Amino acid sequence: MNYRLLGKTGMKVSEVSFGAWAIGSSWGQVDDRESLSALHKAVDLGVNFFDTADVYGDGRSEKLIGQLLRERSETIYVATKAGRKISPHVAEKYTPVVIRKFVEQSLRNLRVEALDLLQLHCPPPAVYYMPELFAGLDDLVSAGKLKNYGVSVEKVEEALKAIEYPGVRTVQIIFNMFRQRPAELFFREARSRWIGVLARVPLASGLLTGRMSRVTKFRSDDHRAYNRKGAAFDRGETFSGVDYAKGLQAVEELKAILPNGMPLSQVALTWILMHDAVSCAIPGAKRPAQVEENCGASDGHRLSRGLMRQVKDIYDRLIMEDVHQRW
Ligand SMILES: NC(=O)c1ccc[n+]([C@@H]2O[C@H](COP(=O)([O-])OP(=O)(O)OC[C@H]3O[C@@H](n4cnc5c(N)ncnc54)[C@H](OP(=O)(O)O)[C@@H]3O)[C@@H](O)[C@H]2O)c1
Fold it and tell me: What is the pLDDT of residues 121-147, one digit of tens each?
């Protein structure tokens, strides 16, 4: 496993890290014992950074990671998120007092004294124009409750605005073969300010593993069944906002250009890591075998310029029109 600095946080994180949404909720049924095995497998393979949120199973994901922390002696960093419990989810309800309450709950779920990284969890855009909220986060750092804070965003423009706050040290954004716009301007800005970048939904909700087809069935409690059109939350979070049939077509073209013997999932993660502005990719996983395959992407392997051009061509022809100017 290779490691990269997460911006100014001082944390050196595994370039393939672990996204812990699926082990909490919204991805069909999960078994806590299997989830814990997946978490342990990740640590065995050198993963030292886990991304979760208070809303993933209402604390279920955070508590599993808390258990992992107690069962392992290695240095493990945890990033969590707050804000999505606010209901209705409107900017006016974001206050320092409310965020502090969420932080206290996450500290209890994880059973730690301070959070390594707290991210605002895709707040309404107006929140980025509320300096008092960011001042409240600075206060939580001074109080020793947070070691670092950052944001998780839907759109490039939200990221650009967020990093104008000097206290914001990280940005989490959707970046993968099907969501290439962050590489255009945002990465340059992020690098110039030494911002840590977490690439989320790196496998386009599993599409970029190449294991899905027209007949793949998703349980009714899996967002890949109920959120394709954005019925429950931003539709960009499901298959990166790409139409499923079109995504499958692009995947077929990607499979045809894979370097010998490399699974598409590893090529997809390596493609992300080819961008120096990225600190880590955070693929979600429910099972140890998935973790093993995903960690295989951090073997120092690079993709050729020719392959990078072919991926860009597939994106330009099949995907760009649907996503590029939306996020
Ligand atoms: N708003 C936010 O801040 C936000 C939103 C979304 C995600 N995130 C974070 O980003 C992380 C990653 O995104 P994501 O989980 O949405 O999507 P993802 O990483 O693109 O896809 C994860 C899913 O793909 C499948 N998968 C993973 N590795 C595989 C492999 N090697 N072979 C076959 N299937 C594999 C698994 O589902 P199946 O086995 O069920 O197919 C897994 O749950 C999340 O866990 C979360 O931490 C944050």
Answer: 999 999 999 999 999 999 999 999 999
Centre a 10 Å sphere on the Cβ of residue 3 and count the other Cβ atoms it contains: 16
| DSSP E strands, 139-225 | 149-152, 168-174, 196-200
Beta bridge partners of 198: 172, 280
Active site residue 56: yes
pLDDT tens digits, 151-174: 999 999 999 999 999 999 999 999
At 15 the three-state DSSP class reads coil
Predicted model pTM: 0.98
Pocket-forming residues, ligand 1, beta carbon under 6 Å:
19-22, 27, 51, 81, 121-122, 152, 172, 200-206, 209, 211, 237, 265, 282-286, 290, 293-294
Q: Could you tell me whether strands 280-281 and 77-82 are parallel, antiparallel, or unpaired per DSSP bridges?
A: unpaired
SS3 165: coil
